[in-house]
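Contributing new records

If you add data, match the layout below exactly. Sequence lines come first and carry their own label; structure lines follow with theirs. Keep one chain per record. Anything else will be rejected by the validation script.
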Amino acid sequence: MEIDPAGATRGYYGCAVGKGRQNAKTEIEKLDMSKMTCRELVREVAKVVYSVHDEVKDKHFELELSWIGKETNGQHQLVPKEIYEEAKKYAEESLNDSDDEDTDM
């Protein structure tokens, strides 16, 4: 769900807000969500957020992840800390791996 400043709400399978939202949305749309668990999706979305962030042009950011699903009984909640930490670590490692591949070329 997304609520804009005017109060309009929209439902999505995945969405992004903020400066890099369009790039993040494009990457999120590439995911085959129908074949993934919410836990897997959280990891992949964290990876997307890290991948679209430009460290040169953009300020430091704080990753915030929330979800709605069976795990939350349909209620909007922040992702539990252990899942958040796992997703953040996965995203950071993926970013470092891609940086290593870029320098190897």
